[in-house]
């Protein structure tokens, strides 16, 4: 039995960054919002002295319970998909704040090149530079200049710490707080990179470099460099987190009704519009229908696509024909090409750090270098980071060391503070056979099909990784180490081992309804009162962490929802 509740103007599914920003902006405008979150509420008090690596990192307390809901995965369209049983590659948040509570805080803007990638690639290199299998590579439907005000709003709200870099085009304002400190490790990278002619910069961070009060009046303390950041909530509130920024603002308006332990399993519909959502109270097992004028789907990338597919809203993508849009252009990122350094007689105190503490060069990002003589497009950042090495998770040892036993233990201790990463993070561009759909066999605890991911690294990824290995090797040699291990080859994708956690696509944005699921306000072409907000909207993934762009798009979507409530219909770009 499903209990039907009174209709509301807006229901928001998921209370992470996307849902939190939308809820804050709409409630500040006087609009009543019901926010549904499948997990529990959290505040900084939940994390006080919570430096428990086993509990949070290895037993994944802040994450979705994979025994109840997971994804299935395969590497090829002809392969057999199996459920992901433990976290490796992906860490899907659960509870108020979502992944925005356990993220590390690196907060970039995407490049002007990213938003017009197809046009700019063809203009410089010709259409033949884009391989046939990359047919889904398209412009985003808006430019960096149009995105810039939304980036500025997000950075002010989150208090991003950084230094101005010309790489990202014009800026309305500098970052609201100065960059984080430069550690000895970062200074060594800076010295070597500068001597090779590069221009290193401190990574922009949502870990506050100093105390800060944002435009909404939210005050937060500075980062303590405790190293318990990624996979952890911040006990100081120093890390930008929707649970300590936008969600409290929405609550203070009195216009947000936050319902926790409310797991949305389906959107209801009538004709070409959604009529609301059905959710399960995870404490009692009761089912409720929440009617609404506007439905905002703002959960994790996988859950956004899965919810639409299970609700029959939008046309599923078919890799054989290229038709349909829901599930299209799933993208990841690459980390091949990095170098790991080891020293016999130097230490860097790697046990201290912050989630976004690091230094980077931009010369190989996007189209910042001439790609005429290489067989790939886009690029990667080259960086050295100091997140804080925790004793269970981090045991860096030279290549060839056994993975267990006496020698492993000895070298783990020997190199614990005597290693130095020079790593990459590269863009991921769409392949027509990398996509998301519903699994025909496996279901969740409520009987709904799980989401199936089909993904393998592409020729573009492999060529990029090999090229970047020459760059990181050169920097590593300039730094000077006793041992340098360079990863030159991109191994096949392994959902349980690969280390990047940035997933994008599946409900992509664009200017063409035939090639995209949502417009530039993240409003669905096929269901005008549904807005799908999050990194699921990215038509490709850049070489940057996605949260800054997710946040900026969430502010733009909030603007679009307000316009829709006043005007109705499919919105045109302002």
From TrEMBL:
Cofactor(s) recorded in Swiss-Prot or TrEMBL: FAD
Top-rank taxon, per record: Bacteria
Listed SUPFAM superfamilies: FAD-linked reductases, C-terminal domain, FAD/NAD(P)-binding domain
Residues covered by the Glucose-methanol-choline oxidoreductase C-terminal domain: 430-553
Annotated keywords: FAD, Flavoprotein, Oxidoreductase
Keyword rRNA-binding: no
UniProt entry tagged with the keyword Magnesium: no
One Pfam family hit: GMC_oxred_N
One of the record's GO molecular function terms: oxidoreductase activity, acting on CH-OH group of donors
InterPro entries in the cross-refs: FAD/NAD-bd_sf, GMC_OxRdtase_N, GMC_OxRtase_C, P2Ox-like
Domain Glucose-methanol-choline oxidoreductase N-terminal, chain residue ranges per copy: 133-331
Family the UniProt entry places it in: Belongs to the GMC oxidoreductase family.
Protein known as: GMC family oxidoreductase
Top-level taxonomy: Bacteria, Bacillati, Bacillota, Bacilli, Bacillales
